[in-house]
Specification:
The longest helix has 13 residues. It contains 3 helices and 8 strands. The strands form 2 sheets. A 5-stranded mixed beta sheet has the order 5-4-8-6-7, with helices on both faces. A 3-stranded antiparallel beta sheet has the order 1-2-3, with helices on one face. The protein is of the alpha/beta class and 124 residues long. The two termini are 15 Å apart.
Length: 124
Amino acid sequence: MRMEQGQQTDGPIIAGFSGGGFKVDDGVYRALLITPLRADGWAPPPIAALGVDHVAPLLALDPPPEFLLLGTGPSLVRPPLPFVRAIEALGFGIEAMDSRAAARAWAVLRGEGRWIAGALYPLD
């Protein structure tokens, strides 16, 4: 599947889904950490074990991201409350949704020039 983009923006854009992963520039990532500056593969823990340390590179973005976009896999799963509280205590917002919706939201928000970070669990 290919996603249509509105405005073009600098940095990596999730262009679609391919081979069970997220298509970004010339690569396909099964799970993804993404910022306006770069996209990296990710080996996430089970969602119930997710901790701030698992997304630390995203939170170190300078300037800090407006919020963390969390794609929780093939369906929406509420992230662990301690994780949410820890992210919020650091001054970041968090938006959780299924990973396909998160990928689409990334494209729209970055097309608007929003400075965000994303952690996307695998699609399956």
